[in-house]
């Protein structure tokens, strides 16, 4: 499994940035960033959520991916899980194929919802 450090290094290199450049953008010491990228940190030294958010922003990367790789649950996810724990318990018990079906259903629902919103906007404009 990819670690958060490996993923940060991979994205940083894709963006043609040095460790010093990224560290400067984020406001951290480049030696700390080197230790993160090389997985040379104790558990309590793992980057905090706000640091990972800054790294993701500087790299134009997915902050949630970095947070999850660092075994940190993003606050927005935590709030949703705590608000509806039963839903998440059921999702955890689902097979991969059932999850794919659920995802397809959600995508279809959100696509049709977006189309409905667009249609409603067009109707309002025509009514003006």
UniProtKB/TrEMBL annotation:
<dbReference type="Pfam" id="PF01381">
    <property type="entry name" value="HTH_3"/>
</dbReference>
<dbReference type="GO" id="GO:0005829">
    <property type="term" value="C:cytosol"/>
</dbReference>
<dbReference type="InterPro" id="IPR050807">
    <property type="entry name" value="TransReg_Diox_bact_type"/>
</dbReference>
<dbReference type="InterPro" id="IPR010982">
    <property type="entry name" value="Lambda_DNA-bd_dom_sf"/>
</dbReference>
<feature type="domain" description="HTH cro/C1-type">
    <location>
        <begin position="8"/>
        <end position="66"/>
    </location>
</feature>
<dbReference type="GO" id="GO:0003677">
    <property type="term" value="F:DNA binding"/>
</dbReference>
<dbReference type="GO" id="GO:0003700">
    <property type="term" value="F:DNA-binding transcription factor activity"/>
</dbReference>
<keyword id="KW-0238">DNA-binding</keyword>
<feature type="region of interest" description="Disordered">
    <location>
        <begin position="106"/>
        <end position="128"/>
    </location>
</feature>
<protein>
    <submittedName>
        <fullName>RapGH repressor</fullName>
    </submittedName>
</protein>
<feature type="compositionally biased region" description="Basic and acidic residues">
    <location>
        <begin position="113"/>
        <end position="128"/>
    </location>
</feature>
<dbReference type="InterPro" id="IPR001387">
    <property type="entry name" value="Cro/C1-type_HTH"/>
</dbReference>
């Amino acid at each position: 499994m990819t670690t958060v450090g490996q993923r940060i290094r991979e994205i940083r290199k894709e963006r043609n940035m040095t460790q010093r450049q990224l560290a400067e953008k984020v406001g951290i010491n480049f030696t700390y960033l080197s230790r993160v990228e090389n997985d040379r940190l104790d558990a309590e030294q793992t980057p905090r959520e706000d640091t990972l958010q800054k790294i993701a922003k500087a790299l134009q990367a997915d902050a949630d991916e970095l947070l999850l790789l660092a075994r940190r649950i993003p606050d927005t996810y935590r709030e949703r899980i705590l608000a509806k724990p039963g839903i998440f318990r059921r999702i955890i018990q689902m097979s991969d194929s059932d999850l794919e079906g659920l995802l397809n259903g959600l995508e279809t629902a959100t696509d049709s919802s977006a189309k409905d919103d667009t249609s409603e906007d067009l109707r309002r404009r025509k009514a003006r």
